[in-house]
Amino acid sequence: MRFKDKVVIVTGATGGIGSKAVEAFLKEGASVVASDLDAEKLNDLDRELRCSDRMITLAGDITKSATHNAIVDLAVESFGGLDVAVNNAGISHDVVRLPLIEDELARRVIDVDLMAVFLAMKAQLPVMAKQYKEAERTGSIVNVASAAGLVA
């Protein structure tokens, strides 16, 4: 139980990597705030893992600061802090030659895959810094990159 008494946030919690991360952290004793855009898939994940006492879900748009603030606030209010953040939410699209990519798609990818990570850390770091200053409670942030970098 390596993560007993630890509090973890996972964004993109219903996808392949995210759902496995949530499951692994729960098995290792962590309390988890699982977030994703799709509330129905979050409910399915909660039912599948049957850990409602140590897992809370929050559906929201990770391209919005308010969503990240709500996720962090939920972790602190429900479980007493934040020890690990896995910023995993991302989107992908078919491989397309650059001149053919629609501007709207490019903006959406940048908002989800880049800006959302920035917004997440902007919400997470102050809590982790405060915890360290007050109790030397350390934290870790894992930012999951896009597999698209492998085909660029």
Q: Can you tell me about this structure?
A:
The chain has 152 residues and is α/β, with parallel strands linked by helices. The protein has a single domain, classed as NAD(P)-binding Rossmann-like Domain (Rossmann fold), CATH 3.40.50.720. 47% of the residues lie in helices and 16% in strands. The chain has a 5-stranded parallel β-sheet, sandwiched between helices. Strand 4 (84-87), helix 4 (103-135) and strand 5 (140-143) form a beta-alpha-beta unit. The longest helix is centred in the C-terminal third of the chain and has 33 residues, at 103-135. The protein is globular, with a radius of gyration of 16 Å. The termini are far apart. The model has no long low-confidence stretch (mean pLDDT 94).
In brief, what are we looking at here?
The chain is of the alpha/beta class and 152 residues long. Helices cover 47% and strands 16% of the residues.
